[in-house]
Design a protein that fits this description.
The protein is 79% helix and 0% strand. The protein is an all-alpha fold. Helix 1 (9-43) runs antiparallel to helix 2 (49-82). It is globular, with a radius of gyration of 21 Å.
Length: 445
């Protein structure tokens, strides 16, 4: 390893800031996915269960509508002008308030139509802050570490979602044990949302232990801060690469939200697992979500982001999509096989997606990186976030739960095709940050 490739304590703090911020940023987003089959009728009662589930997924989707708005505001006004740390800190404060309040909401039986309205309002506000946080969390680690480590650090950042699912699944398992049967509908789901207080630990870590990004500070000291990063992002200079980046991000986001967003419903309704069995299954599957993107990111450091994304899409078509058809053939008596299959699906779904965070960082220069990364990431995930709702509505019209496995199969194939198109069109980005730093260093001499 070259001397300048060595990781220092500052590098590790930047990496951990990215990983843990994104982990606890996503905890609450996964909480509602895990409890959807159980709270659907508490907020959106209907004679048709799938419509209740679809409506709950739609409330989940509302937070995605605001994520690009939060990304643009925080990226332009805070991350690219005031620093990555401030974007993280301000975002976490808003996230904690809006996430935790959801555990205090009245249900439809108590407050009528007011209940779902309050849920949607809180999720809109939460989405704004989640989008804003990414303008700092998704840049401070990948842009700050030595070139040799950018691939796996970006992959680990993406894998923070796996850590979030692991924590949320463990919390779900705990609540299922502590509040069995009907009591879960009274207190269990509320305790899930009270986990929204957890990001406070990250806030303290970032504020007091993590230094500001030196890459950003170098640009600031050189007087290269852009007056309007969002205007620059949408200029003719970046318009084409923004479009391609959105394709890749949407594709890999679909590969996250289709399997993971519908996993709980699949296991509960198709495999007929109990809540504790689902909790154990998702805890183990979450380990695959941690390994896959990190490994894919490291491999991309050797073969390039473009090739890694293409390989990942091929694996999705060849292995992940058919795995859901196999999973549908298993019953609760085959719990070990179900757990193993869920682990493989989670490992391979975003194996190629490990490139996304570092790819976006390398695509945009430092002076618009906070805005560019956050807007592209959150817009892509906002669009993909509609997939659980759309699939639930499609199922309701074509035959219900029995059609879920084949619907998942074709939906995943479509996602892989989107990834392939974007990957074939994109330029290779590996090494771009190092080249920019070299140029900036020469100009400052």
């Amino acid at each position: 390893m070259k001397p300048n490739d060595k990781l220092t304590s500052k590098h590790i703090k930047w990496m951990l800031a990215t990983f843990f911020t994104w982990t606890f940023d996503l905890y609450d987003l996964f909480s509602i996915l895990l409890v959807t089959p159980y709270i659907a009728e508490l907020f959106f009662p209907s004679k048709i269960l799938l419509l209740s589930i679809a409506a709950t997924y739609a409330s989940f989707l509302t937070s995605f509508i605001m994520r690009p708005v939060g990304a643009t505001y925080f990226g332009t006004r805070i991350s690219d002008k005031l620093g990555r740390k401030k974007a993280i800190s301000y975002g976490i404060i808003g996230l904690v308030i809006t996430a935790t309040l959801q555990g205090t909401l009245p249900t439809y039986a108590i407050a009528g139509i007011i209940a779902p309205i309050l849920l949607i309002i809180l999720r809109l506000a939460e989405g704004f802050f989640v989008g804003g946080i990414t303008s700092g969390s998704h840049t401070i680690g990948p842009e700050s570490v030595p070139e040799r480590h950018r691939g796996w650090v970006g992959g680990m950042g993406f894998a923070g979602a796996g850590a979030a699912y692991l924590i949320a699944s463990a919390w779900f398992y705990m609540t299922a044990i502590l509040f069995p049967g009907p009591s879960y509908l009274v207190w269990g789901w509320r305790v899930m949302f009270f986990g929204g207080l957890l990001p406070l630990a990250v806030l303290g870590f970032v504020n007091y232990l993590v230094p500001e990004s030196e890459t950003w500070e170098r640009v600031k000291s050189g007087g290269k801060i852009v007056k309007s990063p969002v205007r620059e992002l949408f200029s003719s200079k970046y318009r084409r690469i923004l479009g391609i980046a959105l394709l890749i991000t949407i594709g890999w986001a679909l590969m996250y939200y289709i399997p993971q967003g519908l996993f709980t419903t699949f296991l509960a309704k198709v495999n007929k697992l109990s809540k504790p069995e689902i909790g154990i299954t998702m805890i183990i599957a979450s380990v695959g979500m941690l390994i896959g993107p990190t490994l894919g990111g490291e491999i991309s450091q050797h073969i390039g982001r473009k090739i890694m994304s293409i390989i990942g899409a091929i694996i999705v078509i060849a292995i992940v999509a058919p795995s859901f058809l196999y999973l549908a053939s298993l019953t609760s008596k085959s719990l070990t096989n179900i757990i193993f299959t869920a682990f493989i699906i989670s490992l391979l779904s975003d194996f190629g997606g490990g490139i996304v965070m570092i790819y976006l960082n390398e695509l945009y220069p430092t002076n618009i990186r906070g805005t560019g990364v956050a807007f592209t990431w959150n817009t892509g995930f906002a669009i993909a976030g509609a997939s659980p709702t759309i699939i639930s509505l499609v199922l309701a019209s074509i035959g219900g739960i029995p059609k879920l496995p084949i619907t998942m199969f074709y939906s995943i194939i479509i996602a892989a095709i989107i990834i392939l198109i974007g990957s074939l069109l994109t330029p290779e980005t590996r090494g771009n940050i190092s080249k920019e730093i070299e140029v900036t260093s020469r100009e400052s001499v």
